[in-house]
Automatic annotation (TrEMBL):
Source species of the chain: Streptomyces diacarni
Family to which this protein belongs: Belongs to the BMP lipoprotein family.
Name of the protein this chain belongs to: BMP family ABC transporter substrate-binding protein
Composition skew (Basic and acidic residues), residue ranges: 61-75
UniProt keyword Cytoplasm present: no
Domain of life: Bacteria
């Protein structure tokens, strides 16, 4: 598996077939190898661009590409519990229309991206949170367990009740990485702290688009004395954060994006302790740039703590007093002294 070595530099420098076009012009751009392309085809997971989390991070990558590289973007958004066939149709429509690269945001696109890509060998496809199984597919995966470990350290340091909790959107292998890292970080910091773990759904991807359900789950956790709640559930996390804002002394931990800085969550920012950030925007931008330059990335790209592929948000200054603890944990992880699990 290839490891992206230039990511830190890049970071520093920086249901249905419903269409949402950010730049719907039919004009084509030309890559440095002379090939015409209409721009980038971006297929969002459920929740779409404005989920204040995962999809929005990917959108920042295309926004940057539009501004700095002059490319156009066509966006399409998934619906709840849609079929593989629907995802395949969405990706096929983008490839047939001449978009290159075509990027699926989220593990749900893993099978469909790798399947459709074989029918369009001259198009570069990307998939976030899944592996590449075709020559022209770039798999972009992240060490979410590592950044989750760090916010676990923060939770352990900031809890007053010695009770913290985790809400996952869907009980699958990907979200379990967030849980595993968080629990390990809490326990390594203070083994006496009690941790409550629950998931919005066992299988349905509706768990990433169910803010009311997350709100109710957070309400119950707060009632049971949990005063720090980490929610890894896409758009559902907004519901959890809203509920936490009603409890004096409680903290929310955001995910994927720096949720303190999300405009849609601005009125709740005083309770957002930190966020476990994965730089999907950087991964997406680097893929687009590589295609634009005529040297498309290939295979699997991994983004870990070592390359700043994942990080911890410091917005608000709420964890400034414990940064020594967090930085030590980061150093121990990157040096291999701490092995962060990927399964609970």
């Amino acid at each position: 598996m290839r490891r992206v070595t230039k990511l830190a530099t890049a970071v520093a420098a920086t249901a249905t077939l419903a269409l949402t076009a950010t730049a719907c012009g039919e004009s084509s751009t030309e890559s440095s190898d002379g090939k015409k392309t209409k721009g980038v085809g971006l297929a969002f997971d459920v929740g779409g661009r404005d989920d204040h989390s995962f999809n929005e991070a990917a959108a920042r990558g295309t926004d940057k590409a539009e501004k700095e590289l002059g490319v156009k973007t066509k966006e399409m958004t998934a619906g709840n519990n849609e079929t593989e066939e629907t995802r395949e149709q969405r990706l096929t429509s983008l490839a047939k229309a001449g978009y290159n690269p075509v990027i699926g945001v989220g593990f749900n696109y893993g099978k469909s991206v790798n399947k459709v890509a074989k029918d369009f060998p001259d198009t570069t496809f990307g998939v976030v949170d899944e592996q590449s199984h075709a020559k022209n597919v770039v798999g972009m995966t992240f060490a979410e367990n590592e950044s989750s470990y760090l916010v676990g350290v923060a939770a352990a340091k900031k809890t007053k009740s010695k009770k913290v909790s985790f809400i996952g959107g869907v009980d699958n292998a990907l979200i379990q990485k967030f849980e595993a890292g968080y629990v390990k970080g809490v326990k390594d910091t203070d083994p006496k702290i009690k941790i409550e773990v629950d998931y919005l759904y066992k299988e349905s991807d509706e768990g990433f688009n169910a803010p009311d359900r997350a709100k109710n789950m957070a309400k119950g956790m707060l009632a049971r004395g949990n005063d720090v709640i980490y929610t890894a559930a896409g758009q559902s996390g907004a519901g959890s954060i809203e509920q936490i804002s009603k409890k004096k002394g409680a903290w929310a931990i955001g995910v994927d994006s720096d949720q303190y800085r999300q405009k849609g969550l601005e009125k709740y920012k005083d309770v957002i302790l930190t966020s476990s950030v994965k730089n999907v925007d950087v991964a997406v931008f680097e893929l687009i740039k590589s295609v634009k330059e005529g040297k498309p990335l290939k295979g699997n790209q991994t983004f870990s703590l070592k390359e700043d592929g994942v990080s911890v948000a410091t917005s608000g200054g709420y964890i400034d007093d414990i940064m020594d603890d967090i930085n030590k944990a980061k150093k121990d992880i990157t040096a291999g002294k701490v092995d962060v699990p990927t399964r609970p």
